[in-house]
Amino acid sequence: MFDRKKYNKKYYIDHKKVKLEPIYRNREWLYNKYTEEELSTREVAKLCGASYFTINCWLKKFNIHMHPQNEGMLGKHHSRETKRKYSEVRKGHLVSEETRKKISKGNVGNTKWLGKHHSEESKKKMRKRIVSKETKEKMSKAQVGKIPNSIQIAGNYGYIKRGWYDINGKNMFFRSKWEVNYALYLDFLIKQKQIKKWTYEKDIFIFEKIKYGTRSYIPDFKIYNNDSTIEYHEVKGWMNPRSKTQLKRMAKYYPDIKLIIIDKDVYSDIKIKLGKMLKFY
Questions:
Q1: What are the boundaries of each domain within the chain?
Q2: Interval 65-107: pLDDT, tens
Q3: Which of 2, 6, 62 is nearest to 29 (CA)?
Q4: According to the CATH classification, is domain 141-274 in 1.25.40?
Q5: Helices 264-274 & 177-191, crossing angle to 10 degrees?
């Protein structure tokens, strides 16, 4: 047996990497450290590389009698009134006169920011919040394969099955199951020689004159027709305010771009007629 080498709670034994259970999950060890040696949860946590909250949870799980200072706060939350007081203290509403005098004395002689102001040019730059087309494209690519915080935290649009899908042998990421199935339908149109090809989220349109809010738009599908014309298809089950704004600004700033909306009725018609044959997800 070789010497054990610790690295991120992993050990190498007989040339094989095995993951051992964290030591705090051993009741006897945890009991000895916490009860017999009378270490605090923070001290125990430091010994095994865990958080004190984790140690509290395992103490409770093993029914180990907790020290009063830990037992009293486990699972406790501040009341609304206490939170309000903390908030007011941070805002300076409940700072005593003595504390204010100390703060004032501490700032005596500090002239670093005295009389400093942003220039008009700096103010204009901050107002414009200019984001280049290249930056927008980088931001968009960085979000591929990721679920927005609105869905992760709030659970909005939880029915949207975004992720990686197999499209006739190609592994691609889509933001909804409707888009996946529409991609299968577009492949069918290629086989029927009704279109040449399609790409997903290929182009980005910047609304240069807009300074705030919705300043860009990326259509779902770019369609290359047989007659060498190009059009864009947007798959939308329903319109949220941002989507409505994007479409309005597309019509205003890019009137020559042909954009077709694949709404609920159009999608349902395709699914009823060809869904089983094309093996829609």
A1: 10-73, 141-274
A2: 876 655 445 555 566 676 666 666 555 555 677 877 887 777 7
A3: 62
A4: no
A5: 60
